[in-house]
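User: Can you model how FE2/S2 (inorganic) cluster sits in this protein?
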Amino acid sequence: MLIEFTLNDQPVSVEAPADITLLALLRDYLKLTGTKEACEVGECGACSVMLDGELVNSCLIAAPAAIGRRVVTIEGIHDADGGPNDLQRNFLSHGAVQCGFCIPGMVIAGEALLTKNAQPSRQEIRVALAGNLCRCTGYMQIVDAIEATANERIKKSN
Ligand code: FES
Ligand code: FES
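Assistant: Here's the modeled complex, given as structure tokens:
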């Protein structure tokens, strides 16, 4: 079937089977491999993307569910010059990136949180990351990076 939607602010149109997941559509058909494939049962958050601004596990979403909607993947998160954005730079500077397998999902979860809650508490950040597992146990640094980004963005907007 023809699946048409907005992917990282660009219209896309892709012919794919109706019974695949959004994760498979992104990785196998659109070759966007930043979204990771791990548990495939909604437990780990490695496959996190935003669907109409909501954080979702793309392994649990049928590809046709994206039709007519806005999908943002890690490839869509960057600065105006195409480099890492402030959140991604803070992940690096706070030592939040270890093996990196969970990191695309963590960044997406962080962005999804910050678009809804510009100044989250550390507890709210932890809750927002509850569906994203990091087996390297770098959670403290990840929370630090999101908190620092929130503070910087608030400062900038004042
Ligand atoms: S791969 Fe989707 S939640 Fe783990
Ligand atoms: S940095 Fe290793 S799983 Fe998260």
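A couple of observations from the model: The mean pLDDT is 97. The first strand starts at residue 2 and ends at 7.
User: Helpful, thanks.
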